[in-house]
Design brief:
325 residues; mainly alpha; disordered C terminus
């Protein structure tokens, strides 16, 4: 490798690091926007899809992505099906914010990679190693601690359940959208948010949101910042960084979310619950890094949520490291 080539690669890595770090910081503020909007989870997701589709559509049009889009009927159907799961993943996650706290919901939501591994073994007969089982056990122990469940105080079980359900739906979307290859991830994200508009229309109470006032600014922000800008930054970073680095930087998201939750709402995880946080995050990191070559570069077309494993992403609030098959 020449000096010039090495310098170019180093510059790309630095830029990708800045882009992904910024994207994860934005992810960490997602819960604040949801809560401050004052709308119910169904309305929040509906308008996130609406404003996000407008912003992503304009971006894709400006970049010329609609030309030679590479969609086939099968790929379009898979992207749309993944969108169904990613949209309801958002609904359940935002319900978890209401029933527990942003901090607790965010940490529990990071069980996504374990569902992806288990679904891969169940649906595609992927081999589970002894190490994987061990890390799943560590994650489960961390989940028990984080839940705060005890015989005398069941804790915020509803919030815990919604966060786990959100993680499951995100994992299902990941498994589906990983099959959409050769298509710009921005276009896949656009299809998925477009699916959310008619899907959630029957659940949206427009009378309830008509008097939101300043809440509309938060809803617009969710579409423009957390569904367009955030994913543009992530997809750009994914092309420049190795998967191992992406896996590490992904944990900026829960760190920022917990700091923001405490700073704005005074919520914090208790001492016993705090013991479970590093167990879940460490197990998630180890499983993510074990699922792809340590130095493999992330493909721009691999899909994680927003996203987002963590997929590379289907549009999800908290994407994990993208995986390669």
């Amino acid at each position: 490798m020449t000096t010039e080539t090495a310098q170019t690669a180093a510059n790309a890595t630095r830029r990708g690091t800045v882009e992904l770090t910024l994207a994860m910081v934005l992810s960490g503020t997602l819960g604040i926007f949801v809560v401050e909007s004052g709308a119910s989870p169904f309305e929040v997701v509906f308008f996130r899809c609406l404003f996000g589709a407008l912003a992503l559509g304009a971006y894709c049009l400006a970049r010329g992505y609609f030309t030679d889009h590479a969609f086939t009927p099968k790929k379009l159907a898979l992207a749309a099906l993944g969108g169904v799961f990613i949209v309801f993943n958002w609904v359940f996650l935002f319900e978890a914010y209401e029933e527990s706290s942003i901090s607790l919901a965010t940490v529990v939501y990071h069980t996504q990679p374990f569902y992806v591994v288990l679904l891969g073994a169940l649906l595609f007969k992927e081999r589970l190693t002894a190490a994987t089982f061990g890390w799943l056990g560590v994650a489960f122990a961390g989940l028990v601690l984080v839940s705060g469940v005890s015989p005398t105080d069941p804790g915020p079980l509803a919030g815990l359940g919604f966060a786990l359900l959100a993680a499951l739906f995100y994992a299902v979307s990941t498994v589906i959208t990983k099959r959409v290859t050769g298509v710009k991830p921005h276009l896949v994200a656009l299809v998925q948010v477009l699916v959310g508009i008619p899907l959630l229309l029957p659940f949206a109470d427009f009378a309830a949101v008509s008097g939101l006032g300043a809440g509309w600014a938060w809803l617009v922000g969710l579409g423009l910042i957390h569904t367009c800008l955030m994913y543009v930054l992530m997809y750009s970073a994914y092309q420049k960084l190795a998967t191992a680095k992406i896996a590490v930087l992904a944990f900026v998201y829960p760190a920022v979310a917990m700091v923001a939750d405490r700073a704005v709402y005074g919520h914090h995880i208790g001492l016993v619950q705090a013991l479970g946080v590093p167990l879940i995050l460490l197990a998630s990191l180890r499983i993510n890094r074990a699922r792809q070559p340590r130095t493999a570069a992330c493909s721009a077309t691999t899909q994680a949520p927003a996203t987002t494993q963590g997929p590379a992403t289907t549009p999800a609030p908290a994407p994990a490291a993208p995986s390669r098959r």
